[in-house]
């Protein structure tokens, strides 16, 4: 894409232009002034990096980029990006139609289908992971999702960094989770074949904290899932209680049947 088309795309959709730029081997930046010479590559399999791409006069704002980290990016997400600027597109044309015939292309897909879009997704994901790491380091008030053993649900903790979040969990929550694990409610290990007494705890960076409401929302989800599990267990208890009664009844019936059968057999023999 030439600079003129890139500028036009920035006017039409700044977000789409930013996504396209981040998938380029050597992104231009919002000002369009970064070049290949501004990038360095340490290994052939790594994407070129530049300290100028994020922050500074020629780069993107860190928290503007972080907004893209809030979702997972898949091929369909990339192919859904379209433009009405032909020079800004590499993908196929989307034709308009009236009642009788096609009237010409109304828009184009930004990305070309096939291996190219796969490479661009990987490049975007790599750069967004770097953005997430930078935001985590820059912020002193972060939220971490703590994954415990084989539990699918996570519990959220505040922390300055990953180590601090794990220390908070160890101090305030570990004993309760250890006790729950001892009952067999969940496996203490993550299910990858390791059998140890130590409980697996994995802090995952969620994002910078903007207030207490975020952790309340996240942990309410955990509590709701636990209460759903409680209801399921209670239903299982009811089922098992009825099964226990049925088992005892069957045992009594078979005992009585056996005694009566044996008595009748003895009478026939006498």
What does this structure look like?
- The protein is α+β, with helices and mostly antiparallel strands and 270 residues long.
- The chain has two domains: 3-138, no CATH class; 142-224.
- It has helices at 3-12, 14-22, 62-66, 75-79, 115-138, 162-172, 174-182, 212-269, and strands spanning 82-83, 93-97, 102-109, 142-148, 154-159, 201-208.
- The strands form two sheets. A three-stranded antiparallel β-sheet has the order 1-3-2, with no helix packed on it. A three-stranded antiparallel β-sheet has the order 5-4-6.
- Helix 1 packs across helix 2.
- The longest helix has 58 residues, at 212-269.
- The N and C termini lie far apart (106 Å).
Helix content: 40-55%
From the spread of the alpha carbons, the general shape counts as elongated
Strand content: 5-15%
Q: What is the arithmetic mean of pLDDT?
A: 85
Number of strands: 6
SS element count, helices: 8
Q: Please, how many domains? A: 2
Outline the low-pLDDT stretches.
none
Q: Span between N and C termini?
A: 106 Å
Task: Tag the structure with descriptive keywords.
alpha+beta, 270 residues, 2 domains
How is the secondary structure organized here?
Elements: H1 3-12, H2 14-22, H3 62-66, H4 75-79, E1 82-83, E2 93-97, E3 102-109, H5 115-138, E4 142-148, E5 154-159, H6 162-172, H7 174-182, E6 201-208, H8 212-269
Q: How is this structure best summarized?
A:
Helices cover 49% and strands 13% of the residues. It has eight helices and six strands, in the order ααααβββαββααβα.
């Amino acid at each position: 894409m030439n600079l003129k088309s890139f500028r036009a795309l920035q006017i039409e959709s700044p977000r789409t232009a930013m996504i396209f730029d981040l998938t380029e081997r050597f992104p231009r930046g919002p000002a369009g002034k970064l070049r290949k010479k501004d990038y360095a590559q340490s290994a052939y399999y790594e994407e070129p990096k530049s300290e100028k791409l994020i922050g500074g006069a020629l780069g993107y704002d860190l928290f503007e980029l972080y907004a893209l980290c809030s979702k997972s990016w898949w091929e369909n997400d990339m192919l859904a990006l379209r433009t009405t600027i032909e020079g800004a597109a590499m993908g196929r044309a989307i034709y308009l139609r009236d009642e009788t015939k096609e009237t010409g292309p109304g828009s184009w897909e930004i990305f070309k289908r096939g291996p190219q879009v796969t490479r661009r997704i990987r490049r975007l994901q790599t750069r967004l992971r770097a953005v997430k790491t930078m935001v985590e380091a820059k912020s002193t008030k972060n939220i971490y999702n703590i994954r415990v053993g084989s539990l699918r649900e996570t519990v959220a903790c505040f922390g300055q960094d990953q180590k601090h979040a794990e220390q908070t969990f160890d101090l305030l929550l570990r004993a309760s989770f250890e006790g729950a694990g001892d009952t067999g409610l969940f496996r203490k290990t993550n299910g990858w074949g390791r059998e140890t007494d130590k409980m697996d705890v994995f802090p995952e960076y969620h994002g910078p904290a903007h207030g207490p409401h975020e952790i309340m929302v996240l942990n309410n989800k955990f509590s709701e899932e636990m209460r759903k599990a409680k209801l399921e267990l209670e239903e299982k208890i009811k089922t098992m209680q009825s099964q226990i009664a049925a088992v005892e009844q069957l045992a009594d019936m078979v005992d009585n049947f056996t005694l009566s059968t044996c008595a009748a057999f003895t009478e026939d023999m006498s």
